[in-house]
Every structure is written in C-alpha cells, then in structure tokens.
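Recall that a protein's primary structure is simply its ordered list of amino acids. Everything else, from secondary elements to tertiary packing, is in principle encoded there. The following example makes that idea concrete.
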Amino acid sequence: MINIDNIYCTDCIEGMKNIDNNTIDLILTSPPYDNLRNYQGFNFDFENTATEIYRIIKKGGIVVWVVGDKIHNGNKSLTSFKQALYFQKIGFNIHDIMIYKKLNTPFMRSNAYTNCFEFMFVLSKGSPKTFNPLKTKTKRHGKEMLVAGKKADGINNKVLAELKEEKTLTNIWEYAVGLGGSTNDRFAFKHPAIFPEKLAQDHILSWTNENDIVLDPMCGSGTTCKMAKLLNRHFIGFDISQEYVNISKNRVNFLDL
C-alpha cells in the first residue's frame, strides 16, 4: 500500500506497481543514465520503468525526464534521445525538449567545448491539463510596429501591436550547481548527483497545482519531494538505497522543524 507524502525504500518498478492507473499528476526525476554514477549497484531497467510511468500518470499529466549522455572515446551515446523515442513509442507526446544549463560546470574537454547542459524531456499523456507559465520582465513594452503574418516570401509585414510587460520564459533554464546553488543542505551531497532545488521548484510550479501528486520514482537525495512539500503538493518518493531514503526523509522532515 502506497500512501502520499511518504518516501519508500524500494525498486522503482515494484513501487509503481502499487500505484493505481492514472493517479499521478507529475513525475519529475533524473534516472541513472549510461552508468555515469554507481548508485550502490542499482541496475536500471528503463523499458519496464517507462511502461509503469505511462500507466500511473494521469491523462493530461506530465513527466519531466532529466538526462544527459555518456561520452566514450569521443562518441556520445545518445541514450537520452533513444529513451525519448521509446516514450513516444509507448504513447507519450514529446511536449517539449528543454535544456538544463549548469552555470558553473566543471566538466571540461580537451578537444571540444565545455559540456554544460542536460536535457529535460517534457512528456505528456495527451494534452497537458496544467500549464502555469513562469514569466520574466521584458526589456521594453508598450505599442510598437511589430512583424506579423510573415510568409514564405520573407516579406516583413508590420502592424501596430503591444509588447507586454512580461513574457514567458524560454525553454533553456540556467541554474548554479553545488553547495549554495543546488541546495544549502550540506548532507544532501552524500548523494553523488543532485539537481537544483530551483529546477524542481520551477517544474512543479509549471505543471501542477496545489494538492496535486508529484512522484519521483528514483528520488535520490529527495529534492523533488522536498520542493513538492514546500509548494503544498503531495509527494511520493522511491529509492532502492536505504542510505538515500534516509537523506531524502531528513530533507523533507527538516521542513517541519
């Protein structure tokens, strides 16, 4: 029996088998792709994980799948896109391909530009039921002559229109990583790969409303669960490592102190 607002030590597939069909509003996770980290020997069964994810996500629900690619002998694996295509094959829409840009990445290559990003595949089961777009201030606003109805002939036809004071963010999101960037919870770094709290916050705000249910089936250090609780959403977390579950529970329970 799976209860909301809890974190469980279990394999993600076995945990999801205990969740009813069409139950979860948002799944936000970063899986252990390409064996880039040793998550205490966890063997990632991607296809069965994807099948369970599709079953339990609500119609109109969203999955945010944060992944990158291993570089071996100068060749990128493209595991990220292979996984995205599989999700599409089993019924998901590839609603967006977003970029998580790391502002202070240490991963430099001798013969290529510094790799500073991961993909955030936004998958939807049908049309998204919720989108609360995050906004940013425009540099200028008011009425201007703006290009409108541009066609294949390339002619710029202009009409008088109004620039708004705010605009929706682009799909490239930038975050600092490390202590003070990803989180101020020092003990969270006992986990080898955490993503920024702000990243989790921004997706939870974008794709859910208060009292929705957010799941991280490979919750690691508990970032998704912590931010869901802070934002008045319900959460469920799974991780096969008791050590990581303890870290996650400590982060979530610390909010009650």
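The radius of gyration is 20 Å. The chain has a mean pLDDT of 87.
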